[in-house]
Amino acid sequence: MVRSAFTDENFLKYLDTFTKLEFPTVGLMLGQRTDAKDFIIHFTRTPPYRGDAEQSIKKFADVPDSWVADHARHVTRMLPGGMYVLGLFVVCQEDIFATCVPKLKAMLSQIHKRLTPNAFLYGTPQQTEKLVLHYSQLSRYVCKSYNYDTFSLSNAEIKFQSNLAVKWLQVECKYELDQTFPIIAERANWPLKKHMNEILHLINMNLQTAVYFFDGEIKDGKECLETIGKKQKSHLRLSQPEDENKLMQVTIVLPMGGDVAPEVEILNSGGQIRLTGHVASKVWLHPKATVQYASDAIMQDIVRSLAARLEMHWDSLLEEEHGSPEDTNSVHETPRRVLINLPTTKVTLSDYLFPGEGSQEAQISLSELLDITIAQPDAIFDVEGQPDIPEMTLEGPEADCDDILASSTNRKKYIMGLVIAFVVLIISLLIHFIKG
Q: pTM above the 0.85 mark?
């Protein structure tokens, strides 16, 4: 069975702009995959290689595999849950399916290796195929599908349509975080990255066993989202035009720890990590998506967003904050999420801004990673806002509180002793004068 993909015809003009260049252009195709077909929402070229061998890239075989794979990892951070890097596009005059098949396989394998190690990014869908599109002035375009299991290329079909008729279903969720994680004394010397990976693993496990309410109701996992929307609309009985992007609100109820260990073990605590804030989650799903698919997409979006922020935060740290007394009590502020509408669809992608950064920094990263030019800063939506750091820093470790209480108690005892000594002195003087 030939795999089919659908996308907007405006991307043909985008691909055609690269045919005038003297060197090959490689990029990524982003979108959502179903069992039967793929929906491509965006094409983005990989930034030109900035290494020492920049001048030597004259043909497709010269493009570094690791450079394209690294681009795929950065772009995956920006995708909402349920969206993936669906494949590669290559714009050049040479026939890559005739002369560069080993190079194609090596590049696709490198992308797979780069996205697989961090499971929290959810960079690889369940399907084991990637699309490869070759575009040139002479033969226009040819599409193939690469299977990671069989290491083989097969024919695929891509259709560029005007006004791509996909009524994306929009699902929103606000995931609140306010939890304290104790650190076992034996793990107190772990680096911050290792501690946060453990916490991210716990969050991921909790979300996998959580209950997801759609518009306040529990739905059958096999029920189609489009069917739910039609039922809700029939109950409203309103003569309004059908909205292209139906909105559903999801509420997550986390498990309360029902699986209690048979034995209770008391462990020494070496500290604690408090995680507070919220994740603004917004995913876009094709009309035939089921409730279970939507639940998985929300879970992936939350975990992927947290993993992306932590990766960026770790890369920004100069050194680990542990070992010295002044670093034992510190606040880490990870990047916040902003959303951007794609030019050809209402689907939104994400970017992450560090404290103090604004829309200008987002415009730079969008241009470099997604090849999107945002003319108006108000097209970037700050959906999470700045965290309230002073409120977080009011609470210190319990040891500090104990020291304060002990110091206050000693002070009261000292004052009480002075008062008693003064009273005894007055009484002694009175007795002395009376006897005299």
A: no
